[in-house]
Design brief:
The chain is 33% helix and 22% strand. The protein is built from four helices and five strands. The protein has a five-stranded parallel β-sheet with strand order 4-3-2-1-5. The mean pLDDT is 90.
Length: 125
């Protein structure tokens, strides 16, 4: 049975390739291994879900793929992306600003319900 992994990007600087790249890579790997993966972005990290933002950030200077390419790869592997409702407020965004790979906006009740399940593990960055 697949286990659920929730990766929370709360304190990771969205402009820092090193802070954002590793969790997205881990999301891709876990999803490729058959695990249910959700990436929840909140605070300033929610900017990576804004249309056009992640396309301008590269994980390494010599890396041709953008941060958005890594998001698309994780999504294609099965990872689901969510924006925490407070992330919209923090980043002055609305739902229409979110990339198509974002499955939607979640609130505190949904998040707590998910992390309290027995088969869930949470990584926070």
């Amino acid at each position: 049975m697949a286990r659920k992994l929730i990766i929370v990007l709360a304190n990771a600087d969205p402009n820092s390739d090193e802070a954002i790249g590793a969790p997205l890579f881990q999301a891709s790997v876990a999803a490729s291994m058959g695990h249910q993966v959700e990436v929840v972005c909140t605070g300033g990290s929610a900017l990576i879900l804004k249309n056009g933002f992640a396309a301008g950030i590269h994980v390494k200077a010599a890396e041709a793929r953008s941060l958005y390419d890594f998001i698309k790869e994780a999504h294609a592997a099965g990872a689901r992306f969510h924006c925490f409702s407070t992330g919209l407020d923090t980043c002055a965004m609305c739902k229409n600003d979110l990339i198509t790979e974002c499955s939607g906006v979640i609130g505190a009740a949904h998040f707590i319900e998910e992390v309290m399940s027995d088969d869930c593990r949470v990584l926070t960055y």
